[in-house]
Design goal:
mainly beta, Jelly Rolls, 4 domains, five-stranded antiparallel sheet, 2 helices, 40% strand, elongated
Length: 494
Amino acid sequence: MDTVATFVQPNSAPGGQDATNYKGAIDASAKVMSQIAAAFAPHAAATPNMTVLVDAGSFQSNTTRVSQAQQTTPTFTAPTTNPRNDIIVIDQSSGARSVVAGAEAATPADPAIPAGKIAVARVRLTVGMTVITNADIDDLRPAYLIASSLPDVAGHEGHGLHVVGGVFGWSVDKDLVARDQIALTNIQQMLNTAVTTGALAQGKQWELLGDEWATGSSGYTFVLDSINYYSSGQSQSQISGGTNIGNMTAYGGIASAFDGNVSQAYTSAATLAGAGNITGYIGKRWGSNKTVTRFTVYGTTDIGLSNSSNASMTVKLQGSTDNFSSSIVDLYVNSAVTDSNGIVLDVVSGITTTTSYPDHRVSIIENAGDGGSHSISCAEVKFYETVGSTSETLVSPAVTVSTAPNFIDSYFLYKDDSGTSVFGTDFTVEHGRDAGTTFNFATLSIIAQYDGTYSLIRARTDVSGQPSGTSMVSRIKALNNKAQRVAAPSIYSE
């Protein structure tokens, strides 16, 4: 590992450094700057051939310092009919280089950059070429944004917001750098202190306490989680068929919990009568393995889940391989359910889905009985499975700013649950400044990592050619049935 040097500004002006000190200052300062400027620098081979070298570099990825020695690309193949642009990228987690091939065209376009990759160079290939020189390579490395990481978010120590491109350091638009920093800080503050959704100076940060982008949006699921998010990968279908199982056989019996009637009194519903802290079970033997990804429990209209004077309940989803004879696996547990008449418990997250089971049941447990005879009742139970991903369109509420913007930037946390989505093909962002009448596509950049799960995305659009307006709208699309999620969106004007 290289040792450090002390930066000394070289100064050959009269009264400055003498020749020896001037040369020493150049050497020391170049060494300091090379740690940043030379990181992952692309260039031709010493003896040019059809490969490109990517110099050594390092960066912080979550809690790990990632370092890569100099890397050589695979051998490029010259196009046969028209020019082609290929993009050299590095992986945002490992720093490993790879190549994204473009398409031949009279005026070639750059290929889309896959999620999780950072562009470092464009190689402009021409028909019949046999060597690649520096004149054929464009430097695309992202500019220096902020230090390698922000302070950790409370509850996620060691997993703060970490910059992916922060190893680089040449000239950039200072306003854009400042805006990136503001977006990072606002998202960090929101995660750390749960700030209320509200207007910012020339923009807005949404916390998504509820489904705030519902109007105009389609094809999505709003998921309540540690960070609430929109998902395109939650297409679910109610599981039908199977054999009813359980001990809630009184009054309407077990069948009444699967008759489609979600509004029933306990004397018409599936009920278990008893004394003390009783537990009711109700579920299905499917006849084949199923993976339950969502379930909904409907309490009765007159006693909810129990007529005990103690309203504290525990609700579990359990799986089994032998009709709960000896195999009983808790897949979801909520031990703090407050009972009420007509309660509906709709569980869409937090379910263990790593293993499929032929038997599933819901367990309804009184945390503390009242000592008397009473009942546990359930009007209806629904089990769901994921049947495929859907495409989604998310449209933000309009945000009004004081003057017509020339650029609009959106920032949000993003996760590619499919593992194969490509920016520009499977995921796009558009912006408009005239209340959503006109849209232009944004350029997408990954600028940070959060908690090893999400990437922080900046989507930037030149809207100067749109009809003038001060009502900003962002439109996000997850396409081609690829499962993807978006959280903590914001929008800014410039």
